[in-house]
Fold HAD family hydrolase.
Amino acid sequence: MSLAIFDLDNTLISTDSDHAWGEFLLEQGAVDPIAYREANERFMADYKAGTLDMAAFLEVALKPLADNTPEQLTAWHQQFMVSKIEPHILPKAEELLARHRTKGDTLLIITATNRFITAPIAERLGVDYLIAVNPEVANGRYTGRVSGVPSYREGKITRLHEWLEDKDFTLDGAWFYSDSHNDLPLLEEVDHPVAVDPDDTLRQVAEERQWRIMSLRGE
């Protein structure tokens, strides 16, 4: 029995949930239609290029959580799951999760997307453990600030080791599945790194290091 760790966006689901949430907010008229769309697209491009300023991104991404009531956010998220996430649930991803469950492995999603967006997705996929960016909460409302270290690039390793401190799990024999070169630090940390529908940079590294490369999309 080992720890099976999964990136979420464009790995277990065929979309980026952070970007999709931004698109959803635009459709609801909840954010500035010009400035927010421009920022959403710019940050997505920066992420793909490996040049994302995480602090600047989170300042924009977490503001709508602070600007709206928990009740409104919950209602929106239910709509978001139906329209933006459910169509991107990958049957092969669910099969992969099921194979690890059958082996008795412990399943964990680790993502640079915030917990508000991703906790219901992890629940939908039947994954009990989630490490995500934690939006700060005060007096029952989101503040628009981040709590703790963002789980992005090397931050994923920091957060994972923090999570492991009070668990019985170790990284011995651990798996990590990801599509993104941004996850190279964590891929290098585990015994079984797997590139899933990888971007060009990750594919090249995986081929050079003879890591497993797989697809969860299509036939």
